[in-house]
Amino acid sequence: MPVGASSNYLTVSFSEKKFVSDSELTLLKTISPNIVELDLRECEISPELLEVIGGMKELRKLFLERSSITDSGIDKITSLKNLSVINLSTTVISDPGTLSLARLIALKKVYLFQSEITRNGFKALQRLLPMVKIDSGNYRLPVLATDTVVYRKAK
Question: Which pLDDT score, from 0 to 100, does residue 12 have?
Fold first, then answer.
């Protein structure tokens, strides 16, 4: 889908599919210079697909949540110099994979909730990427008096 009426840039989504076929992979290679947003939620991430993604020089947003991306797969996409948002939630990405994210120079947001990153890995990533918003989930909301009802037994 075109990003705008007068733009050659594209948003591509495979979110309803489990894998990218060979013919779709060939098409992706053809249009890869124009792709700025790629949605591969829940997809099988093959080495061939990673090679194509790594060549998407204009890619700005990459959604890989619930996909089969691995730590070694992250290394294949660190050449994406325009990538500003990556979602790796609910994946097997762990501490070594997340440290590779430091090579993504335009990165602004990383989503890592329900991944295999440890507390120490998260802290190390924050030190490496102090200007990047890293969302790990684990939200703690304060209990507000207006949200709380206290029941007492009648005497």
Answer: 94
Residue 2 DSSP code = B
Mean pLDDT of 134-140: 79
Whether 2 shows a pLDDT value over 60: the answer reads no
- pLDDT value at position 17? 83
Q: Let me know: does 104 contact 83? Beta carbons within 8 Å.
A: yes
Contact 17, 43 (CB under 8 A): yes
Q: How far apart are the first and last CA of the chain?
A: 67
Q: Which of 74, 46, 47, 48 is nearest to 62 (CA)?
A: 74
CATH 3.80.10.10 is held by the domain 10-137: yes
Q: Residue 135: helix, strand or coil by DSSP?
A: strand
Helix (H) or strand (E) holding 69: none
Helix (H, G, I), strand (E, B) or coil at 62: strand
pTM: 0.84
Helices (H), 46-137: 47-54, 71-75, 95-99, 119-128
Task: Please state, in angstroms and rounded to a whole number, the distance separating the CA atoms of residues 113 and 100.
Answer: 17
Q: Rounded distance, CA 143 to CA 18, Å?
A: 40
